[in-house]
Design a protein that fits this description.
Elements lengths: L4 H11 L11 E5 L8 E4 L5 E4 L6 H14 L4 E5 L5 H4 L2 H5 L4 E6 L12 H11 L3 E3 L5 E2 L5 E7 L2 E2 L9 E2 L24 E6 L2 E5 L5 H8 L2 E2 L6 E3 L11 H7 L3 E4 L9 H8 L6 E6 L14 E3 L3 H9 L4 H4 L19 E5 L5 E5 L5 E4 L4
Parallel strand pairs: 3-4, 4-5, 5-6, 12-14, 14-15, 15-16, 16-17
Antiparallel strand pairs: 1-2, 1-18, 2-3, 7-8, 8-9, 8-11, 10-13, 11-12, 18-19, 19-20
């Protein structure tokens, strides 16, 4: 039975261990189910915590974040990173800050001037909440977390121009990846997303928020300044507005994690780019996607799956609702709650070995360090 928020708050404030006791000499990542938003918790080898985004507003996502913090033994958020200011990424931030102490705030700065869905109410509240503890990040900035190297590679439609470890080679995917017409987008703050590359020893992962297709080209072309990574969190939930071959194929991830919902993200085009990516071993999904249909990864790699009758209906009905979805952002795009909700967890060692766990089934797979 899913605990109430009151019970979770009590557990977090009364029973959680201190941050020092969280020292494990490994990096742990929790991809929290916000049903097509984002909230990702990183706990470093010394127990320091970084939370990226807070999902949609309301008790559903707030409760899931609190449950994850409690399960991880986190009683304070040392670093709070907001990729951009849309409701599916910052929706629970204000409420969360009233429940858990937050040390530092990071974001890309003011929203894009043409964005038509950013909430002024949220911006005013965020300004009060983060005052004196906020850093607007620029490409090349580092986040001070013990044992980790976290480098900003994108922020406010500006991109890193120095080479990270393993970067600096021409990107062969660029000539075959044309730009898209993004002039009709009303949610232009996506392209401002603040993203980073996180390195723990020989393990590397990337989180770019909802960076759009053309921003990916600006980041990765003509030179791949990032190099290769181990784990790629899909840009923009697997929508076809992002996830270009110029990004994915150049990064050559061994594992991709898609933070899609049932009807948001998980586009066939995104799946195609991932499946064609050189060196990809597995794709893990937070949800079985109605949009992807038969392209979904095997069920053992999916954290949340609909009832068999719903899946059968999607697969056998050409006009299923899922085929019409997959676009849009913000809290309005959030789907009904799956209960219970399950996450994907990664445990990484400094030698580059990592384990991915599907918390729904307990299935875990180990990926040995690259040679």
């Amino acid at each position: 039975m899913r605990p109430t928020l009151a019970v979770v708050i009590c557990l977090v404030t009364g029973l959680a261990v201190t941050q020092a006791q969280l020292r494990t000499d490994k990096l742990t990542i929790y991809f929290i189910d916000t049903e097509g938003g984002q909230s990702t918790l990183y706990i470093g080898p010394t127990g320091e915590s970084l939370l990226v985004d807070t999902g949609n507003p309301g008790d559903r996502d707030l409760g899931r974040i609190m449950e994850t913090l409690n399960a991880a033994g986190v009683r304070q958020i040392d670093h709070m990173w907001s990729t951009h200011h849309h409701g599916d990424h910052v929706g629970s931030l204000q409420a969360l800050a009233g429940m858990v102490p937050i040390g530092r705030f990071y974001d890309h700065g003011a929203p894009h001037a043409n964005d038509r869905i950013v909430s002024k109410v949220f911006l005013d509240a965020y300004d009060r909440l983060s005052r004196g503890k906020r850093k607007v990040v620029n490409p090349g900035d580092r986040i001070p977390m013990n044992g980790l190297d976290i480098v900003t590679v994108a922020s406010a439609n500006r991109f890193i121009r120095t080479n990270l470890r393993g970067g600096g080679r021409p990107n062969p995917a660029c000539p075959d990846t044309p730009a898209k017409d993004e002039t009709s987008y009303i949610d232009t703050d996506n392209g401002e997303s603040a993203g980073f590359v996180l390195t723990y020893g020989r393990f590397r992962t990337i989180n770019l928020g909802d960076l759009t297709w053309n921003g990916e080209l600006d980041l990765m072309c003509p030179t791949n300044r990032i190099g290769t990574i181990d784990v790629y969190l899909t840009s923009h939930h697997g929508l076809d507005r992002s996830g270009s071959a110029a990004l994915v194929h150049a990064l050559q991830p061994r594992v991709a994690v898609m933070n899609n919902g049932t009807r948001k993200g998980g586009s066939p085009a995104a799946f195609r780019v991932l499946h064609e990516s050189p060196g990809l071993e597995d794709l893990w999904q937070l949800h079985w996607s109605h949009n992807a249909r038969l392209d979904n990864t095997p069920e053992i790699f999916v954290a949340n799956v609909d009832d068999a009758s719903i899946v059968a209906g999607v697969l056998t009905t050409p006009t299923a609702a899922g085929q019409r979805g997959g676009r849009g952002d913000g809290a309005a795009a959030a789907s009904a709650a799956h209960t219970p909700a399950h996450s994907i967890r990664i445990e990484a060692a400094s030698d580059g070995t990592f384990v991915v766990v599907n918390t729904r089934t307990g299935f875990r797979k180990t990926y040995r360090s690259r040679d």
